[in-house]
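Re-running Conidiation-specific protein 6 to confirm reproducibility after the cluster update. Everything else is unchanged from the original entry.
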Amino acid sequence: MSSTQHEANVARGLKAAINNPRVSDEAKESAQQRLDNIEGATTEQPTTEHENRVMGGYKATLSNPNTSDSAKQHAREILDAASVEDYSGSNQAEFDEHQTRVLAGYKAALNNPRVSAEAKKHAETYLKEQGAL
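Result of re-run:
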């Protein structure tokens, strides 16, 4: 395990202790101090990988049909402020490919003898809702 992963695990544990009602106030204060030290050391220069994941989350927000318009607008603002280029087209293609694979999986379930009748009924209902059957 890398030291970065170890620090992340420690930080998660400290956050859990801070929010645990069974932990004493003294222990919560100590955990908060340790967390501040860890976050102070790690948040000065965020990693490129972390930034990519965050921006990827905002990109995914734009193509998620269950996301509100205000959340999509916020995601656009963040991506524009970060000068992320071409965030609409490539993500839509990935979303379309994902949807195609989901539908193919449900269609395969209909013909699989090891799938229960209940699961086949669910697959059929989903496919009808999506207009794929």
